[in-house]
């Protein structure tokens, strides 16, 4: 975080269990299970590839960087230490703004599942843009309030939300096993069917599956609020990594056992599979229960990301790269309330921008692509920072990448290549997008505007600092 030692920081309230559950709620995103299942059994190979070529390099980078520099601000602080103020600001800015399209995207997903809580009575809402927008507004207000009150209370939403992530996976896995033995698999699993397609239209979702394995960077933003972060973060990463990988792979297999890919909805496919299997088995009561769990899980994830990313402008405000108000704490709750309220307000704006001139599905795809691009840009800085710190001596308490410097550099290079490839794929529109030119214009245009605004804010802050130095 800032070099200033006189700053007032939030208290350390997060223990090992809190951090592990935080990684799970921000690392597992059930919407990607539906996306993968809709693409067919070939997605299982893509899951494994994303785990090997993105998650492992990324988790190892976070492990070593958070051990070397357990500073509040996470990747913002790491990039700033390695490459200077501008790199740190742009990395932090891109990650922070990546959550602006993330919030409406995850709320659209939560809203599509919340419809099932009332059984068939609310299904008509699935075609209502107004329903999705008002759901997003209400959810943003809720998680903003909880985060302003403080992590001491908001962590319970994150912890409960983690259960809302893995319990639906356990439910669909259980239903998948029963369906396999009673009815057989709805999808053929063979060497031919599991071979991923290398046609461009079929490769577009690869970036989404790589992005699905992000999340292991989140707790590092709050290192100043974690008890013994040098020990807690690496241990929690290992536990959460196993849960995240198994959730994605087992969940995708289970959905494909219950439903063929052609009938799987890429937005609500997991709950669709639960509904299909539960109806056959006469367990329809299970559907609203799982729908409620998924909704709570996504509210917990959104709350977790708001908690994590609000620490970036908090750190930048203390460093005077954003207005000083961002670096102030709430007088009663001791939280960065200005950053939290700003992010929630801008997230509401993006609900409108993403929905304008397209369908709910089209809005979801545009928001996902924007979120992937602006989140992956700072991930490039994470891998570059991992490579850069290998020239520095490690302290005795530093946890190194297994294999030391050569392996760290190799993993950094693999991560850079994978991330760059994913950014390129994310710029392309979905195959079923009816207005592809508009979708591309939105993705590239809005992403460019976000980065351009960040550059302008940084340049303005530097000009003000230079003028103040001469006064």
Keywords summarizing the entry:
single chain, 471 residues, Amino acid/polyamine transporter I, 17 helices, 71% helix, 0% strand, globular
The CATH superfamily is Amino acid/polyamine transporter I
Helical fraction: over 70%
CATH class: Mainly Alpha
Order of helices and strands: HHHHHHHHHHHHHHHHH
Contiguous helical run count: 17
> What's the total number of strands?
0
Alpha-beta content class: mainly alpha
Strand content: under 5%
- Gyration radius, to the nearest Å? 21 Å
Give the total of domains.
1
- Distance from N terminus to C terminus (CA atoms, Å) equals 27 Å
CATH topology: Amino acid/polyamine transporter I
Q: Which blocks of ≥5 consecutive residues have pLDDT under 50?
A: 1-7
